[in-house]
Amino acid sequence: MPGIGSAGGIGSGNLFLYKFMSFTDPGSMWAVNMDTYEGKRIFQTKLGAINMDNFQTDQVWFPSKDGTQIPMFVIRKKTTLPTMDSVPEKPIVTMMYGYGGFNVNITPDFRFSANRLVLLNNLGGMLCIVTLRGGGEFGEKWHKQGMLDTKQNCFDDFCAAGEYLIQKKFTTPENLHINGASNGGLLVTVCANQRPELFAGAIAQVPVCDMLRF
Question: What whole-number distance in Å separates Cα of residue 26 and Cα of residue 106?
Answer without folding.
Answer: 16
